[in-house]
Amino acid sequence: MGCPMVWDSSMINLVPEDFIVEGISEILRRAGFSEESREYRRKDSSRVVMIRGGKEDPFLGWERLAIAVLWGEAEEGWLSSILRGEDRVYLVSLDGEVKIEGVEVRGASWLAEAFNRAGIEPPESLKPEKLPPESVTEFVLDGPLVGEFNLAKTVEEVRKVAAYRFGASTLQLEAIKLFLRPVYIVSWTAEDGSSSRGLISDGSVVLDAEKSHYKGLLMRLLLEDVATVRASSVEVEDFPDPEGVFLEASKESGLLGLKVTGVRRAYKPIRAEMTLKMGINNLKASLDLLSGRVEAEAEPLAGELIKREVIHAIQDSLGETPAGMELARRGRYFLTRGFTDRYLFSARVNAYTGAVEELKASLREEVLLSLVLKKYPDGSPLGLERVQEGAIVDLLLPEKILVLRVDSLGRGIEVDRELQMPTARMGEILSSLGLEGEPENFTCTVKMHRFVECTGGIGDVTVRVKMDGMHGDIVEEEVAVGREAAVSLALCKYGGFKAVFVDERESGYLLTLEGEREIIKAFVSRDGRVEERDRFLKGQIVEEIALKAIGSLEPKAVVEGLKLGENWEVHFTGSRVWGRVLVHRRDGRVLSLETKYTEKALVDLFEEFIREKYQDEGRVERIILDLEKDVAGIKAVGKRGTYFGRYDLRDGRLLESDFVQSGFASKLKLRQLESHYL
Fold first, then answer.
1. Which of 392, 501, 611, 662 is the most buried (most CB within 10 A)?
2. Other CB atoms closer than 10 Å to residue 22's CB: what's the count?
3. How many angstroms separate the CA atoms of 357 and 337, rounded?
4. How many CA within 13 A on the CB side of residue 518?
5. Does pLDDT of 130 surpass 50?
6. Please, are residues 499 and 517 in contact by the beta-carbon 8 Å criterion?
């Protein structure tokens, strides 16, 4: 087994952006931070990805850390606006130095060291592989090489580009064609007996290479005999008649009479064209060996091929075949979501290689809950939240609530915490309302895996209590009283009464309660508070009190009407008097008694007065009542003469009277008396 590959700063810029982002997320996780969010920003050619994490520190409380990665050059003001407000932040600049006040800036070397410390291995695309021996052949050339051609380095240059552009994790060389350009060493002599060597390279002619900067190259080529290259095929550019080209160049330079004594050929590698296996796809690439420029071409795979690779990965990983799958293209990736009989899964697949680079799976909710209930058969699930490691399940047990952490594949169930329930407080509230027993229609929910809210009631009284399940503190409580409960609460307070009318209002219930002697108006609020709004005597009792008060004046009085205002007002009539009795609305005291004599009573009184005083039988002809002044004028005629009188209506007293004897009174006198009395 070989040693693991170690990161260096030069490798950081060769890996895909998402690999770096996921790597930083892993660094935060291994430092104890849970990832809270990711933020992506772009401006012109600059882009920033910020990963935020948080963790609970027993001494410092909730601690936050953010790591931002910058590609490209960015303005300081733009960067400051992004990083402002973070508790603690590192900025990793991968394309140059950056200075931001108050921010710790790191480079690619820092990130490489962090990856090494965290044990994050480089992607397969950066790991060298053995070339398949059957894909290349060793060619022996009839001359040396001008420059170097290393098959492994050539493939590695293509690998770097393929890793950056296509995210290729593995490459396998299928075929490589090497293009060579001939270089000629020409030996010559002159008429004066001198001799030297020239060089023909890249279409240029150097007549005396031994006196130029090519001297070292010339000596090396003369010392080396042949060269070997490894490739699938070799192609040499055509260069006809090198001797003729050299002599033509010598003539043009003014050197005449040169004779070529020998020509030797060397080879300069200029280009390599390759076909490589990139996953289940093919990559066409070429490397310009003179400039180092690499060109690579690949077509994205069809969706059906991508699905096939995902199916194989799911079968290998989970042992099940997907029953449904969705596929969406995002840049150089396909994102898939799907399900099997027992699992939900998502995968990220390289669109060019077909490699399943990320596969996440978790048990389907019903399967996961069945595992929980198998361990806790008397439990009732209240909620399930998917988290990165699996799921958090709130489970209701008879006396408590367990917050469970369940591995995404169901390999472990752990108790994270126990939560208290507010059932005792619910019982206290119901008891304070005079209700005893276990709450009916009991429901329970958990918020944020901490706050427990229970609802239940007896009859139509419903109680809701929210509690901090970790510390037992009551956060909220609410009582909702229905119509029947409102009546029950009111009758419990006012024993001996019965409800005769219930009026439901938005804030509660207005009840009319009837007892043997009294009527009570009571208000019962929605939370069960009973408030007395009014209390007064019943009308029947008031009538009895009023008739008793007027019994000495009019034993046969009849009540004509009752009116309840500030107090009871009783109107009555009788054969002798009529009037009103004012009775206190609550204690029944007679506050006032107002009476007026009837016309018949006044007629009887006046005729009795005439008999007693004048011994005459008078008959009342006319009576006028002045109710504003409470007086009545009356006129009667008898055998002896005409009688006039004025009575007080309130007590029947005769205020004044006159008598005119028949035959002696003038008509003027009678008219004067009638005017006075009537």
1. 392
2. 16
3. 14
4. 15
5. no
6. no
